[in-house]
Amino acid sequence: xxxxxxxxxxxxxxxxxxxxxxxxxxxxxxxxxxxxxxxxxxxxxxxxxxxxxxxxxxxxxxxxxxxxxxxxxxxxxxxxxxxxxxxxxxxx
Length: 92
Known about the structure:
Oligomer: single chain
CATH class: Mainly Beta
CATH architecture: Roll
Shape: elongated
CATH topology: SH3 type barrels
Structural class: alpha+beta
Strand order of the largest sheet: 3-2-1-4-5
Number of helices: 1
């Protein structure tokens, strides 16, 4: 199944709106993500990521809830993400 996964932007590179890349943390697993669809995204924002593109911004609580659902469904193994942490930290 192919789903959008919530993650937190930890670093952004580039100024060109079509080429901006972010490092996004998915509960500890880090991936590089294109920000072309969310030019307003900033470090610290939570985004939904689908096939390497951030497709929308989401609030932190929504990101944590979606991450918990994905964990319960067993969809997080391929990301290499650990279980959801109870602290706010950088974990969704």
